[in-house]
Please model this.
Amino acid sequence: MIGRRDLLAAAGLFLGGAAGEVPLAARPVSRLDTPWWRRRHQEKLAEIRGRRVDLLWLGDSITQNWERPEFQPAWLHYYGARNAVNLGFTGDATSHLLWRLEHGEVAGIAPRAAVVLIGANNLGRLHWPADDDVAGIAAVLDETRRRLPQTRVLLLGVLPSERSAWASETTLAINRALAARYGGGKEVAFMDLAAMFVPNGRLDRALFLDPLLNPPEPPLHPTAAAQAHLAAAIEPALAGLLGEQPRPPFGVTGTERPPHTATSR
Model:
């Protein structure tokens, strides 16, 4: 979740811009005044300096959740032997990820591949329109490619949620625009995973952590099992970018919910 100070900073930049300027979603914005965020940024800078990095996950809380204990078995299954680094930060919008890219989080490394999953927080309290969000995601990809020219990128569409009709409609518009822009790309591949979470046109709330909270919140973050299915869905494409054979599916048993079909373009 984005804090009050982040919102005030974003509002100030937005109000200070003139018509026709680059939207705030595509401009770097720091959250260094948030203590945990500043600390995590410094920790990630130290992590990438101290190890080999072949795979990056770039994103927000959905990506950071890979570090939760119940998510770790699937992470280790798919990425434990791939020298992977998790650069997900809870509450980050595209502007915050762009700032991190510009301030050292990909400096001095040459990963073979990166997974980018960003944009959900653009549709929360910030409430940025689809065109701005697409511009922000494009800016993240451009900066990633500029700083990591040899890295092949797998872009994931914004995952569906149940926050508001506007957020759902904007998510669809963003993903349509991303598919049109990056579908069939070689250096940036695009996958829309919405069908995993919206079978038969209706969001499957059982695939999300948020309704299990006390008090419950609208579905936004996949459960550990759903995120493992997400990893299985992208594995063939990601393995191809890495030049490897795909890992076998993690922990599939007869009692687990099977993944729904995802769309790859």
